[in-house]
Design brief:
This is Cathepsin O. This protein is of the alpha+beta class and 343 residues long. It contains 9 helices and 11 strands. Strands 2, 4, 6, 7, 8, 9 and 10 form a 7-stranded mixed β-sheet that branches. A two-stranded antiparallel sheet has the order 1-5. The chain is globular. The termini are far apart.
Length: 343
């Protein structure tokens, strides 16, 4: 394993973990861990009063996050495995992380299939480029950060609209208003939760997206504003799909090649510890988060999706993750949307 991220990551991913519940796991004392915890607090500008109750509570979460990362790194390890370690979420308990980041998706349970996998041979036989990365075509906007606003459903939907405006009209990729969708999308609940397909349906049946400059992101739910159309670029969705493609991921790859980026829903329960590599394990198919797939890569031994998250560019691989194609990893094929826009 390449252990170049930090000494701390190297140390905790290469030693033997005997028990997840051991208070002195890996033979490291609290005193030895505190300097690394202090470095974490400094790097991510976390401010807890020294040695207060909150300080020690967050230290306990930090320590347990390292235990979990060590376990995930050792389980199913291979040269292409995802790597887990210290991230900006390491001071959150699993319950806090879930409450803040993973309770905002309200998709109904759809498209249940017994068979989860798509034969890799079927995918490799597709008549598509071996690698597609829509970032290289200039149609992907900057990575966004939803912070504590539970609106992944709005972020991922708007991101794909932005991409398709650039792809279908040839203009520079616009920075469209996620806040407008948070505040105004019917049948959704702003930062309290929502559904990607209902958001896209709202955009198709008459809503028009304005720019982020005209309706800026506030990271909280507010009263819907009705803006004058005069002088405003107004974007409307002309068509969208909401597909269940479990066991048909060859179709997802074909869509990525032929149509463009996709909005999908996933299980992100273990993503708070993700640093890099290809996610191949440690995911269920229960969807609790929404993201955008911006491409794929079939050239390596493990084919992968290039997944854009909405947790800021300081998460994962500059805001992105890699997820294995073919096994419905993290439920990534359960709820897949394409988008077309009115030019």
């Amino acid at each position: 394993m390449q252990c170049s991220v930090t000494f701390l990551l190297c140390f905790f991913t290469t030693c033997v973990l005997t028990t997840l519940s051991s208070p002195n796991f890996l033979g490291v004392s609290d005193e030895q861990l505190i300097p690394h915890y202090e470095g974490f607090l400094s790097k991510y500008e976390k401010k807890y009063t020294n040695h207060s109750e909150e300080y020690w509570k967050r230290f306990h979460n930090f320590k347990q996050s390292l235990v979990k990362s060590s376990y995930l790194n050792k389980k199913h390890y291979n040269d292409t495995s995802a790597v887990y370690g210290v991230t900006k979420f390491s001071d959150l308990s699993p319950e806090e992380f879930k409450r803040i980041y993973l309770e905002d998706l309200r998709s109904p349970f759809l498209f249940k299939r017994v068979k989860q996998t798509t034969p890799i041979e079927l995918i490799r036989q597709l008549k598509v480029p071996q690698k597609v990365d829509w970032r290289e075509k200039g149609i992907i906007s900057d990575v966004k950060n939803q912070k504590s606003c539970g609106a992944c459903w709005a972020f991922s939907s708007v991101e794909t609209v932005e991409s398709m405006v650039a792809k279908e009209t040839g203009v520079a990729v616009p920075d469209l208003s996620v806040q407008e969708v948070i505040d105004c999308s019917s049948d959704n609940d702003g930062c309290g939760g929502g559904d990607t397909c209902s958001a896209l349906n709202w955009l198709q049946i008459g809503a028009r997206l304005v720019s982020d400059d005209a309706y800026p992101l506030k990271d909280k739910s507010e009263v819907c504003q009705v803006l004058s159309e005069e002088g405003q670029p107004m974007i409307q969705v002309s068509n969208y799909t909401c597909l269940g493609l479990v066991s048909r991921e060859d179709e997802m790859v074909q869509l990525l090649a032929d149509v463009g980026p996709l909005t999908v829903t996933v299980d992100a329960t273990t993503w708070n510890n993700y640093i890099g590599g290809i996610i191949q394990f440690h995911c269920s198919d229960f969807n609790n988060h929404a993201v955008q797939i911006v491409g794929y890569d079939l050239t390596g031994p493990v084919p992968l999706y290039i997944v854009r998250n909405s947790w800021g560019s300081d998460f994962g691989i500059d805001g992105y993750l890699h997820v294995k194609i073919g096994d419905n990893l993290c439920g990534i094929a359960k709820r897949v949307s394409t988008v077309h826009v009115k030019a």
